[in-house]
Design goal:
This protein is mainly β. The protein has three domains: 91 residues, Roll (SH3 type barrels), CATH 2.30.30.100; 140 residues, no CATH class; 84 residues, Immunoglobulin-like (Sandwich), CATH 2.60.40. Helix content is 2%, strand content 57%. A six-stranded mixed beta sheet has the order 19-16-14-22-25-24, with no helix packed on it.
Length: 377
């Protein structure tokens, strides 16, 4: 368009019975009762479905309830509209129709990624299918729209009408990916129609024969733990998001559902959420808890050495009722100012507060981890 917008007005005074009656204060209206009873006169007051009408002879008719009446007015009052409307005052050197390109932000549009993974019979490989789910509750439909998705955590000032938009990933067939500022932009290579009050799913990518590793994880909190308890061991599936592992792509935040065939049909075995994951990073999914592996943790000793030194001795029994030998990764949270004095298994330091131990457990057997830790205050 040649010219400029010098004023814009967003009008949202929508048609409604209460607003029409308010606009008709000091004007004549008609009411029809159940038996064709007619009441005419000047509307003096309209409040909470109660009307005060001045008759032609000067008398007043008071209606405490409009349930039995139909109200008739001559025309739609000025200023009321049937849908929200944006009006522009435009200054232009020429008259006639012109093409405009309008950019605006709207609430009510949201999208997220969803993944479906199917493990093989040995739990060593998986096929992965990714989808984009687009939800349109904006109040309007978008016909033959050109769709672009931004992957990443875009900072926006929030209010009651804002909806946070989260990211996605395309493939060479439907989407073209490019870097965009500190995010990833995915451009759908065809137009699509997104109707109001609709959820549309579009294929994001397919990846087959991905190498995975199934692990068993037990988390222990020595810093606050006391007594004895029998606990669950988590089942974790990990895979590398690398090109040599048939992936190597930016994976948006979303829910991953895992399935495995029982020989006849694919059965659901668990699900987990992933955050935005760049290429060459590891994906870890906790899909449930092991049925046939039991962890029993007991604090054997909690000794005060001095006012500033304390020692604890913890025993963790791991029992394996599965058919195969396995390892259980023990993630032990120790807190601050700790020193491992004794341990019958080697450990690695994960961070300043946590150590990791890999405990072998043979089939139908029990392995016992005993660890003594000294704390300084």
């Amino acid at each position: 368009m040649k010219g400029e917008v010098i004023e814009q007005n967003y009008q949202y005074d929508l048609v409604g019975m209460d607003k029409i009656l308010q606009k008709y204060i000091d004007n004549n209206i008609s009411l029809y009762g159940e038996n064709n009873e007619l009441i005419e006169g000047k509307l003096l007051s309209s409040m909470s479905n109660q009307l005060v009408i001045q008759k032609k002879d000067g008398g007043l008719t008071l209606l405490p309830n409009l349930a039995k009446y139909r109200v008739s007015v001559d025309k739609l009052p000025e200023g009321l509209i049937t849908k929200p409307t944006l009006l522009w005052l435009v200054k232009t050197p020429s008259s006639g129709k012109q093409d405009l390109e309008i950019s605006y932000q709207t609430a009510g549009l949201n999208w997220h990624a969803e993944y479906v993974a199917v493990l093989n019979d040995k739990d060593t490989k998986t096929d992965l299918k990714a989808w984009v789910s687009i939800e349109n509750n904006s109040g309007t439909s978008y016909k033959d729209a050109k769709l672009k998705l931004v992957a990443g955590n875009v900072n926006r000032i929030k209010n009651a009408k804002d909806i946070q938009i989260r990211g996605g990933r395309g493939n060479e067939v439907l989407f073209v990916e490019s870097s965009f500022f500190e995010y990833h932009l995915y451009d759908l290579q065809k137009t699509t129609t997104i109707n109001n009050n609709e959820t549309k799913q579009i294929s994001l990518f397919d990846a087959a024969n991905i190498s995975v590793m199934k692990k068993y994880l037990y988390r222990s909190d020595d810093y606050s733990y006391s007594g004895s308890s029998q606990n669950k061991v988590a089942v974790v599936v990990e895979f590398e998001n690398k090109a040599q592992n048939n992936l190597g792509m930016s994976m948006p935040a979303g829910k991953v559902r895992l399935y495995k065939s029982d020989g006849g049909a694919s059965e659901f075995i668990g699900e987990d959420m992933i955050d935005h994951t760049p290429k060459d990073e590891k994906v870890k999914l906790k899909i449930g808890e092991a049925f046939d592996i039991v962890a029993e943790e007991t604090q054997l000793e909690n000794k005060k050495i001095t006012d500033k030194i304390r020692e604890t001795t913890t025993q963790i029994k791991l029992r394996n009722h599965k058919k195969d030998d396995l390892f259980v990764d023990v993630e032990k949270f120790l807190g601050n100012n700790w020193e491992v004095k004794e341990s019958n298994y080697g450990y690695e330091i994960k961070d300043a507060s946590t150590i990791m131990l890999k405990i072998p457990v043979k089939t139908d057997s029990e392995s016992i981890l005993t660890i003594k830790v000294r704390y300084s205050y």
